[in-house]
Every structure is written in C-alpha cells, then in structure tokens.
User: What shape does this take?
Amino acid sequence: MDNLLANFLIKSFEPQDGLWYCWNLNGALAYLKKEGEIWQAAYTVLPLKDLTDEWYGPKEEVPPEGLPRSITVGPGTGLTLYPYMREKPYLVPLPEKLCLVPTAEVRFTALFPPLMAFETEDNQRIAAFTPFTCSEAWFGDDTASGLLCLSLPSSCITRDQAAVCAAPLSLIRCPLVIRNRSKTPLELDRLAIYTEPLSIYEHEGCAWSDTVAMDSLIAGNIEMTVLPETPESYRKIRAAVRSGMSDIFIRQSADFIKNITSL
Assistant: This one.
C-alpha cells in the first residue's frame, strides 16, 4: 500500500479549474471540483466494519450520478484534506474484560474514525464529511445522566503493534494507558474517550492523537488525562480544544465507575 497520508495532511494540492478529483479513504470516496471560487464536493460513506485496503488520491475521477453534493463559495487555490476528531466521545470496548490489581497498568492503541475536512491554505473549510458510519450508544445509567457516544467495534482497539501498523491509514491512532491507582482491583470492559483535549499529529504517514490515560483513583473515581508523551518527531497538524475540559473530567469522574460497570 502506498503511504500517501503525509501528502493529504501536509502538502497543499492545487486543483485545476473544472476537473473532478477523487480521494479513496479505505473504501469511502470523496470528490471535489473547483470552478473559480465555486467548490463542489460529493462523497460516499462506508460502515466502519467494511473498510478496505484501497488508498489513493487526489486522482482525476468524476463522481457517479446521484451522489449528494454541496457547494461552497470562497477564494483559495491550495487545498489540503485534514482529519479531525468526531465531536461525540468514542465508546471503546476492551478486547476482553479487564481486571487490574492495585498499581497495575496496561496499554492499548485505539483506532478512531475521523471527520475529514477539505481546507484552503488560509484554513477556510470547503467541505467536511464523515467517511465511516458507526452506531451510537449511551454510556451511563440512563439517557438523562449518560453520554451519547460513537460505539466502536472491538476491532478498533489492540495491544498488537503489528496490527496498529497494518490498520487502515484513514483511522486516527490513539495510545491509551489504563492505570489502577486505587487500593482495590479495577474491573471494566469499555471506556468512553472524550475528544476535545486531543491534538492530532502526523508520523510516517499515519494520523496519531495524544496519549490518553485513564486512572482509577483512591476515591473510586476514574479520571481521564492527556499525557505529555508525544515524540518530537510527530508533526502536530491540529491542536486540541482544551478549554474547560479539566473541570468536566473532575465533575464527571465520580460517575465513571458506575457508568462502566452498568454496561
């Protein structure tokens, strides 16, 4: 597979007027055409479980008839395709039910389906789309107190580094460490990962996020934090929206154990 993600994320592409271009994102297709200051976009979506190995773009290709299209008017010549975190938290099932004794920790890598956006050289968004569909689920006791999350399949989390390297390039890789800092064993089978505090990086053609730590604390709470572990060789392409997130984690951490064990 050609490693083209770095071209998508870093290099600006200048489309010729009047030509349709196509990007194949592991089976989901995105199309774009520029005519002066008028930009037309079209795309197909794919269930997350049906990703393919296909990966190319930009390539001159006319979209099939019948696809919904959007039109944006605005100046710009250079164009880049960027990945973003989805707004809803990701609900990540663990590969098997996990029990951590006090002081123990375990590391995984989660694979997140992104929102993709075409942007001009001055960061004006031309079009945005979610290439992959996944179900939604409530994380919590009920719909009043819980969180509506994007529910990921178990194939989207692994401890196998070879599987991480072989994963579809369109997915964002999120290093995850779960630590038991309490005095009692911690049992859980899934986690909800907030997206607002996570920056996105490019490294060797893959999109990565910050490292997430989920800590079981002495008071019986679970707290999510972002660890300063990102290597300097990783190029930041999108900064996190961090405002107010620490307060949210503190207020909601008391419900995390209850939420986890109720599912």
